[in-house]
Amino acid sequence: MNSATDNQEAIETVKELIKGIDTAMLTTVSDEGLVSRPMKTQEVEFDGDLWFLTKKDTGKFHELLRNRQVNVAYAGQSFVSIRGEAELVESSEKVKQFWSPAYEELLETTYDDPNLVLIKVKAETAEYWDSGNKFKMVKFLFRRLLGKDTEGTDINRIVEIR
Questions:
Q1: Do 117 and 88 form a contact (C-beta atoms < 8 A)?
Q2: Sign of the dihedral defined by the CA atoms of residues 105, 111, 112, 113, in that order
């Protein structure tokens, strides 16, 4: 198997695991240390990039100007932790593309606010726990109860995205 195929399989796996989980925890690095906050993931197909909408007058915006390393965590039927590098994207067209009426209330603004900015996270690696797959979970727990190695149960994996 080649690297491109492995990366595509990793992207497809992560896409399936985070599908339907609306809120993620975005972790940035502040002067005081790590800071996590809930963010709404944009409804686009995961292709190795995650998109979030924020304002320029927020702590996370200023933290990303100083340190672009982030982690994004999802919890639902499965648990996924994605490490990557963030890029601040100023594009009124992209903001309009991702805009929904819920943001007007959430961010207390409109889509044409020049204070809006997108955070594009380029995923590098992802670690996941596939607890939504009952067969894998039972196999994992059964092997653990018997004191056997849980290797090969595929309930927890780390995959390279890029």
A1: yes
A2: positive
Which pTM was predicted? Answer: 0.83
**Phi, psi for 116 (deg, rounded to 5):** -80, 145
CB atoms within 10 A of CB 155: 19
Q: Helix, strand or coil for residue 150?
A: coil
How does pLDDT run across 94-149, given as a tens digit for each residue?
Answer: 999 999 888 888 889 999 999 999 999 999 999 988 666 666 656 666 666 777 66
Please report, for the chain, how many H helices and E strands are present, in that order. Answer: 5, 7
The SS3 call for residue 41 is coil
Instruction: Give CA–CA dist 67/71, Å, rounded.
Output: 12
Q: What is the mean pLDDT of residues 78-92?
A: 95
Tokens 């292709």 -> residue: 47
Give the pLDDT of residue 134: 62
